[in-house]
Give the backbone structure.
Amino acid sequence: MQSAPATDILLDIYRRMTSIKANDTRIIATMKAGRLTMPYYSARGQECIPAAVSVLLTKEDYLVTMYRGVHDMIAKGVPTKLIWAEFAGRSTGTCKGKGGPMHVTHPESGCMVTTGVVGAGLPIACGLALAAQVRGEKRVTITNFGDGASNIGAFHESLNLASVWKLPVVFMCQNNRYAEHTSYAKGTSIESIADRAKSYSIPGVRVDGNDPIAVYNVARTAIERARSGQGPTLIEAMTFRFNGHLLGDMGEYIPKTEYAAAVAADPYPKYRDWLIANKHATAAGLDAIDAEVNAELEAAVKFAFDSPLTDPIEITRDIYAAATA
Amino acid sequence: MSEEQKINTIEAINWALDDAMAKYPNVILFGEEVADPEGGGVIKVTRGLSTKYGDSRVRSTPITEMGFIGAAVGAAIAGMRPVAEIMLMNFVAVCMDQITNHAAKLRFMSGGQTHVPLVIRTMTGTGFQQGGQHSDFLEAWFCHTPGIKVAMPSNPADAYGLMLGAIEDDDPVLFVEHLASYWNPGVAPQRGKAIPLGKARIARPGKDVTLIGYSRSMIDIPVVAEKLAKDGIDCEIIDLRTVAPLDTDAILTSVKKTGRAVVVHEAVRSFGVGAEVSARIHESLFRDLKAPVQRVASKDSPVPFAKQLESAFIYSHADIEEAVRKTLL
């Protein structure tokens, strides 16, 4: 591993990774129990990318994410109890149950847009960054997307526009090797997505997305570059998703050896072991963090299911600023 | 009697953008060639504004509608009031995702936490032999999408007032300009006075039949109405000005009085604004109607190129007259 940040930052990353993983496990269990009904795009296996990036961001920095984005939201600080209430269709949810997992929004923590359309977040991120630039703010926008999105027009238009206008945006491609059910090699014309940055005269960096310290260092450079007005960066963080595209996907299209190798390289236990081996924490110390995360999760689930269901009158609200004919 | 000042729609919208930019520092403009070094807009609607307000607030973009309309959505969420220009209405097709899946829905999907105070300017219309991809009126696509408003002015004064109203509106607005009438002079607007969206205008009071139009058809309808007046047929004319939201009250009030209605638009006939207006009248005033509501529109065909085909595609004054006479049988 490269030069690591201070221990408190390393543990902050661990805490966020733990929360992402614990919430994912609980969401799947709750869905299997029939208590949550929703399309769920698990990000299990991709935890350390948003965890390592978000310790470098403040609430003022903007996040744009996508349908596979619960990990990004939790890392950025969207309160888990509001996420759970949203998933459960409650009036206390981030969006009163009107958005759902693909549209969680929480401007207080900087989560401005979650989109269900592949690649659509990138142009919007350019606009959030443009607003900051026009107003002379130091705010940075980060937009997350998968490898599949790098083949859609919005990706290319956004990188070009962000480069031409030197926008303070970080394009974070979480390359989990599959676009829905299509393998990277079958659908993508270039060896590395990071190399696509060359076409737009911006830095493109490929990083091991399962190595939190590597992600942290690459993201720090990109965020500092954006914050200081030097323009955008494309990061390609190599990772894998353990639960397929949509929950229920049996992954028949993934070679068994590839899947086994990816699971063996699970970044979560690896990072935990590394923290202990390098004396950043004791097992007991990490267990204590786990216990805190689990207590918060229990409270979040309870909050959600104790909250009232959103009243159907809500489908007549928030369509326009004022009620219209 | 002092002579009224006349301006055309190009000047009127330019005034509105200028006045809005002077008043609100968060109004920004972008689109292809909108800044002065690139010509100040293909029809010069934005001429002078980048020189006056600087190239941070007025930006010529690459030809990248999905990119810059998406950027306009993002900037609007972040508190700006972008006015983005899509050069021709057909080009909305390359950025529909940003308009209908994002701009129109983000207020609802976020539970009201964010909103998109964005104005998209665009222009369209037949008459220049531009064929199938440069002349369509596609407003029905957007009227069919809850969350977005559609303004379609027919004269310079309304264009000015509606543009100010659209910029001040907290919802996304598609602002459709009619290409062929850009240069027609009209009464100058009162500077600084916005027209709220969703309010129709009685362009001519009458008692026998209600003629309902917007945008281009408001050039044709008055001509036909004057002709019919000579035959003793007294038409009331409603300029909708905004097609979403539709000013149903204004329509129903007029048709309740006249008992007859004809809707006229340049967009193709089927599944259009005329169908919606007709349905609303029938649903509310069936027993008051003296005849079924008539629709006059372009043929259900792609816009053709050759002059005689283009003329055959668009409705004629005779079509409007015939529709009115049908309601009087």
Q: What stands out?
A: Chain B touches chain A through 49 residues (CB under 8 Å). Residues 108 and 249 of chain B are 26 Å apart (CA to CA). The first strand of chain B starts at residue 6 and ends at 7. The domain at 201-328 of chain B is CATH 3.40.50.920 (Rossmann fold).
